[in-house]
## 1
Amino acid sequence: MFKFLQKLGPGIIFAGAAIGVSHLVQSTRAGADFGYGLVWALLLINAVKYPFIRYAPLYTTVTGDNLIDGYEKLGKWVLGFYYVMTFVTMFSIQAAVTIVTAGLASYLFGVTDNVLVWSIIITVLSASLLFIGRYKTLDQVMKLIVIVLTISTMIATVAALGQNEKDISWVQTIPHGTMEIAFFIAFLGWMPTPLDVSVWQSLWTQEKQLQIGKAFDTKQSLFDFNIGYIGTVFTGLLFIILGALAYYGTAVELSPNAGAFANQLIEVYKQNLGGFIGVAIGIAAFTTMFSTTLTTLDASPRVMTKTTEKFTGKVYKYQYLFWISLLAIGTIIILAFFTKNMKSMVMLATIISFLTAPFYAILNLILVTRKDFPEAHRPSLSMRIWSIIGIVILIAFSFWYLWSLM
């Protein structure tokens, strides 16, 4: 069992990055506002995004390159666009995951209920861990965190179902109106994760190959990825169910304030599993959000470092540390002005991620179907059709959202 876990890595880190805001916040809100009505959307978007994220470990283990190397082959303009988009979005993404983590910390650990103070503490701690350990820290910590939260959330859901007296319909819902459609797009944006995380996945895969050598081949890499991906889908469903059982059909509205939302989330566990176990699972939820904060703080500087090196042709010794420092400072500045409205911050970051998703989907499909990609590893006809349908759906939903704003 231990040897099996040792071989796992990038897929579990992916799950650690994915199971965060999209699950604890957005899936819980989906259940609270729509009951089980958006289960179809969760399953659909996971199916739509699956091929494009899967292409990341496939491309890296087959070619030895990461997706940034691949984007460079498609043209400097592609790499430039990716560089700009990453720089523009990385601060809002980091701020969104940090404020949720800070809200959980303020509820669980007391000391201060000032979410900004907790955000600074969490950011500094995350940066320190990455300065010391980088990938090795992520690889070791993430496995335990993801397993603990998945099991605890499953137990809480089963307990909640056992105590449930509500009659919640499984009739699926299509959102209407500007506000509902905006939430719907935001829900899809980070479910299970933004598509640009595929680039992160390729970098983590590359690191894992360096760590354990040829033992982490294409077959093992895709197996590792599938475990992480299935885990994120399953956990998303659990949080929709918990949100529906706790809040659907009630007068309670989930708070846009990070600290208050954390209180509401943990109360669900307390009510269904008892106070002590509820707090223990609350700590697991915090640990998961902390892992997401740690992961995103590592990933954006990692890709900015790689991309900068591509443009300059030089390797700078402290560039990774520079980007982490810049991201940490930028995140704290943003949070100093927006800590009171977690909901707006999350909505902005997730909607931007969804609108850029078709770009990454198209690029990743092109990379694994080009003539220079080994034919034996190219996607099958059915996978290509699946990918094309997915791109059409992503574009169609994006236009639907933009049309709703008119």
## 2
Amino acid sequence: MAEQRRPLVQQIRIGIIGTKAIVDKIMKVIEAFPSFDALPLVYQDDEEAPALAEQIGSEVEVLFLSDPLSQRKVKEFGKVAIPVHHVPVTDAGLYKALFHAGLQGRLDGGISVDTLTETMVVRTLKDLDIPGMQAAVYDGPAYAPKESLIAFHRQQYESGASSVAFTGVESVSQELTRLGIPNEWLLPSDQDIVVSLERALLSTASRRSREAQIVVGMMNIDDFGTQALRRNSEHEVQKLKLDIHRMVLDYVESLDGFLTHLGGDEYLFFTTRGIFERETGGYKTIPLAKDLNKTHGISLSIGMGFGQSASMAGTNARIAMRKAKEVGGNACFIVREDGTLIGPLEMADPVQEVLSFTDAELIKRAEDAGMTSAYLSKLLNQRARSGKYEYKVHELAHLLDITVRSAHRLLQLWTDNGLVEISGIEKVPRGRPRQIFRFVFLE
């Protein structure tokens, strides 16, 4: 069955097909890929995969299957002319499964393993310091029919060679459980999914066409005047400027970009989208910000603009810079050609959860409800840094730098427009209970 997807504009559409458990896992990981607009489809049996692939083949640029067997069936029987990838199971999944089996007391004999190679299994057992364990590894293809895998594990168990089976196919695990054979399902790790999604992204036509797209970056040194006043002489101030310029120049050079100094504490630079994405780890972090903060105690505000033309990219860079300043600096935001906002990227302070994207429709909805761009930016920044969705009135007033009375008025307005709802009540020893407000539109 099809699940709901978030409508975005001008993103790379990717079809996610598989069992519910794997699809849910992929959908969580894909939040770190703002370039993707995911269309998830769940099947009950891998025989359904080819039909589902044909169903959405004309709507997406790439297909992402939950296992090698369903991928092979799509390629053999599905009439799709787009790249098809799958999530591999590696020895990282075996580590977790062995640990869980050990806790259940199941590792009192040999084991049988499918999906993984013998080299992977031997290496894992050696790393876990249990090299003496007997392991029977299925030596057929990774896309073997599930009937063959079930027969393999059953034969190993009934012969006494194995006390527990490890399988990378969910339907095989379910059938082994029905037969009363102890087993563990090898789930792909998040890192396995990330690597596979990166390969899928690189295979799309849109990605290849966007690699050479010119992007515009604006960079501003936060509160440089205060930093200059801390220096003992004009000579030290000039040395600081030279050091900063050298570090900025080195960073832009790493982007194969072009830098121009606008005077004072502002810089303008140009690079290509593909290089910028790779150097930021997929729009996640700005190494220059950490280096400057560690070396000179200085923070940066950076705005990046993408666009179909240089004019649009420059305008979006200015908008992104304004967002970075509105949250108090030490931030980098990206505004893409469709108005989508990405950020904040990790700067001098570690960001626990990177906000993948905020679509233009959400931004417009917030502004129509009376939420200014400055307030929205601060809420987005706080969400990315701490994952915070809920506030009491005095907490919101402190974050937005407004009075408690103004915070009450705004919360009432935003509640009326469906952006906020009351999620609970906090009782206090003295005084009236405090309401807790949840910003549901940020979830």
## 3
Amino acid sequence: MNKDNISALLTAVGVVALIVGFAIYFNNPGLNKSSLGNSNGQVMTSDGNSENSISNVKLSIDKSQFRKAPEFKGITSYINTNQTKLSDLNGKVVLVDFWTYSCINCIRTLPYLVDWNQKYSDKGLVIVGVHSPEFEFEKNIDNVKQAVARFGIKYPVLLDNDHETWNAFQNSYWPRKYLVDSDGFIRYDHIGEGGYAETENAIKSLLAERSNQQGLEISNLNQTKLNVPGAPSVDFNQIKTPELYFGYQFARAQLGNIQGFNPEKTVNYTIPRSNLEPNVIYLQGLWKNNPDSMELVGSNGKIMLAYSAKSINIVAGGKGEATVKEDGKDNQTNNTIKGNDVDAEGRLPVDGQRLYNIADHTNYGNHQIEIAARGPGFKVYTFTFG
């Protein structure tokens, strides 16, 4: 062979080797690490490319590296649906949302879920809310039904009271969203709040992929509306106080009272006269220490907290009512910091076991809340912040 022929042959061999190498890499799950979603929340195909628009959807995707979504297990009750299996939804794109109704992080995501259900349910999307409770009272179907109605949820909600579906998905967080494609593979996974635009793009990509596979016509998938009505804006970098639990079983920090937690005992708590330590709960009065809550046993009790955030909520229930003071002022109608669940007289009527917004400021900052509770049976579970 002359020099030109040898060069041509070597070039051809090199090209073939390169093609074979890429083929092995992109079809080997052990080498190609792309799986659920990348750091930008985009749906990933088996060739490592992200799908941002319907024009990029692949007609043929090797899904061997993706995990099959497990079946719903141990469901105790159903809301907005009859008995539902994930296998019954084969051929649809399914958004599985793990939530619980008194969780503020879950509540803030619900306007987006309601919006997606309205926009995409007729295009092949099915949202399934898997309600996996944190507290015992969240297992009560009547409580969950009231919450579903209050939040305007029309999609199916499954009560996972024993966390069997939670465990089947190997989940550890509220909220958490899994997107399951029309073949039953988990293609996207988002933990916590935020990432709404990325999640919606993932929904649209999988709906477009489904339409191509099934030969369907689908339109208006490139319209993403980010200004969802009722969706709050939260700057987590400015919230300096973590969620605080009242139950000794869940508490991550000790009480500010010298008496501390006393499991299953009733304790007469007193608040020290010195300045309150930030981000620490203080109690006054006769309270029973329950695993998940503090329960007022005496006729009057007080809760005080110095915190740093823009808004503050409590999860409460039982009997009685409370009066709320913020920074030494009654939270009445003419007070701009009054919470949504505080009435015109600055009182907090407890009408069920749920989350109550008790103060809402214009800006983030340091504040002190005082809750004067009245009536034996008043229970408080947690403080949360926004």
## 4
Amino acid sequence: MRVWLLAACLVLLAGCSSPPDPYEPAVPVICEDDDLATPPGEERIERGGSWGFLDPVFSWTFGLPAKLILWSFEIDSHEIDERTEEAIRCYMAANGLSDTKVRLNQYDPIGEWKRLFANEKVGWPARYTLGVLVNVVYTILPGRIIGGDNYNPFTDSVNLYSNLRSVAWHEGGHAKDFAECKWKAGYAFLRIVPLVDLYQESVASADAIRWAYHIRDREGEIECYHVLFPAYGTYIGGYVQDILVLPSDPIGSFLTRLVLALPFHAVGRIQAAVRDAAYEDYLPPEERPKP
């Protein structure tokens, strides 16, 4: 009930929305002695090959719960078009994230283990403990099959399986957030502390929205409200699920996340409608359409 009341308040506040704050490119913190995880000449963005009929099978089996929760068929679609690739390419370039690897629907465990050992931007104690655990999960539970867009700070890699610019910018936002952090290992470990993930997710989503407005991508900004708001609600749903639902009850877990995403869907769509209606008012005079 409290979650619903909070959501209702957010819905009312959404009607008073204003343009996103000005966008500030990243200022990466890199020590001069650190070796780059992506050697000069290596492609920063790599695309995985098609697995034929298996891609839609994975998309509509493992990816179905996420599609239903976020109301988008493009979630975990395992088909990423050139528009989404160009969107993340421009974002990474604008923020100076030249060492971050972006994998588009790709499964490369050997490459990720190499990056884990080479990524000196994160201290070795963190990489060889929690970083190893994260890479083991990546290796035995491939996102190339089960989906789940993510950013791995221990390898400085963005893994995308959804054909959505909002999701690409959001995961890029995590890379930017870590790039600007001096103590990257500690910041990565903090994520296991309850509620810290809510802060990190909000930072990445806010950056995606500001970026979409900055480049005047009206459609992309609206998409951010439609997708990233309910996605944030799923993290809150995860905490409620841990309290109310047994780990052995996958249906209960899914329904909990689905229900708790609903008020955030409402907030996101109201926010999108308000911003869409007022979008022309926020354009500089020289960019406004002529009557």
